[in-house]
């Protein structure tokens, strides 16, 4: 990723996160579903940069630590399970219109932990997350 692409990605990600914080605090929680989507897009925008490399390294370290304690395949399943649970919490809360701080935390964790979900489920989850980020990225690219 070139410096220009990375800087645009970070800018759009940070703007999405700022908009989410403003909607949640100053906006008196007027658009909770949009807030979740903005957090997803913001974290995905940051994950694709060197900061995201640090986050992926931290997840890899946690995966290695879990692997040494409970076994290689169980450790990978544990990190993938975190991503899958985060996705299910977000989906359940979006459908039931019950957006809480738990939902927002899962939205922040999903782009980083979702990569560890194995198989078709992981491909579907990351496809959905990528589509959301792509939509916000297209809007951000249009603005810049």
TrEMBL record:
The chain crosses the membrane at residues 6-23, 35-55, 75-92, 99-117, 123-143. Keywords: Membrane, Transmembrane, Transmembrane helix. It comes from the Bacteria. This is Uncharacterized protein. It comes from Streptomyces abyssalis. The lineage of its organism: Bacteria, Bacillati, Actinomycetota, Actinomycetes, Kitasatosporales.
